[in-house]
Amino acid sequence: MNEQYSWILYGFAEIYFDDREIVVGAGEILLIPANAAHSAVALDDTLDVDIFAPRREDWIRKDDSYLRK
Fold this sequence. Notes:
The protein is built from 1 helix and 6 strands. By secondary structure, the chain is mainly β. The protein is globular and about 30 Å long.
C-alpha cells in the first residue's frame, strides 16, 4: 500500500517487479508502485535510501517481523 522510492547513492542494484528486471545505479531513483510485489539484489557494494509514501506504519510500530523470516 506504500509507494517506494529507491535512491541509489553508490553501487548498483537489480530490482524485480511487474515481471521486469531493472538495474539502478548511483544517482538514480526508481519508483516502485504501491502494492507491487518486488525484490532487489545488490550487484556491488551498494548504499540506497528508501522513501515510502505514505510512511511505513508497520516499521514505526516495530511490527515488521514478517520481513525478517
